[in-house]
């Protein structure tokens, strides 16, 4: 992928997650769950989450998604139990984001959870004045567990290593999207102060997690 003059991500002939995702990291940071769908502003913390919606396929080009893919994300510590849609690149070359507050979405250009490298899942913090799937993401703490169910019947178990918040104009591209020597997980949404004029949050919340085990009939 490469960045155009408008800051959008486009496919390139390069390989590897760091070559592709690092190029569009700042664009992702500007999009992932950072705006509300109306003028109501962010929800109050005591609003109950909506139930997750059905699995949604965004129509990514055939052959671009691995036969095995994640289909569900569970985070017991913050009561998240969400189906996962596929996120690819849209017709203009921009990274897709979920079209509503639920469900969360897995970027199909990143590793499948459990494979080598950082799997990337994005979700909205709020939508239409109501909490989104990652409304409580900032509440996670080191040691909390995250479960990713896959189409092959395996459940990959991750443990939170850290929860960070970054200003969008100081997003640490290499740290979030760069290659790593083990299976990892990155959960991304928005956080910090809500800019009422821009109708967006000023920061991104990023959860870093590492694989600690695999469950399922085919697990070793």
Automatic annotation (TrEMBL):
Q: Which UniProt keywords apply?
A: Hydrolase, Signal
Q: Domain of life, per the record?
A: Bacteria
Q: Which CDD domains match?
A: Sortase_F (cd05829)
What InterPro entries does its record include? Sortase (IPR005754), Sortase_dom-sf (IPR023365), Sortase_F (IPR042001)
Q: Does the keyword Hydrolase apply?
A: yes
Pfam families registered for this protein in UniProt: Sortase
User: What is the protein's name according to its record?
Assistant: Class F sortase
Q: What is the species listed in this Swiss-Prot or TrEMBL entry? A: Prescottella soli
């Amino acid at each position: 992928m490469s960045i155009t003059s408008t800051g959008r991500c486009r496919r390139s002939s390069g390989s590897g997650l760091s070559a592709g995702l690092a190029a569009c990291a700042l664009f992702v940071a500007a999009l992932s769950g950072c705006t509300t769908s109306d003028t109501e502003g962010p929800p109050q913390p005591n609003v109950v989450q909506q139930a997750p919606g059905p699995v949604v396929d965004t129509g990514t080009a055939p052959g671009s998604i691995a036969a095995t893919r994640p289909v569900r994300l569970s985070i017991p510590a913050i009561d998240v139990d969400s189906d996962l849609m596929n996120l690819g690149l849209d017709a203009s070359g921009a990274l897709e984001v979920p079209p509503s507050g639920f469900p969360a979405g897995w970027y199909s250009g990143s590793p499948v959870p459990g494979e080598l490298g950082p799997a990337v899942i994005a979700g909205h913090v709020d939508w239409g004045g109501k909490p989104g799937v990652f409304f409580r993401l900032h509440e996670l703490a080191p040691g909390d567990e995250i479960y990713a169910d896959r189409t092959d019947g395996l459940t990959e178990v991750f443990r939170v290593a850290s929860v960070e918040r970054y200003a969008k104009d100081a997003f640490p591209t290499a740290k979030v999207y760069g290659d790593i020597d083990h299976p990892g997980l990155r959960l991304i949404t928005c956080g910090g102060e809500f800019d009422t004029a821009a109708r967006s949050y000023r920061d991104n919340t990023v959860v870093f997690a590492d694989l600690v085990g695999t469950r399922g009939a085919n697990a070793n």
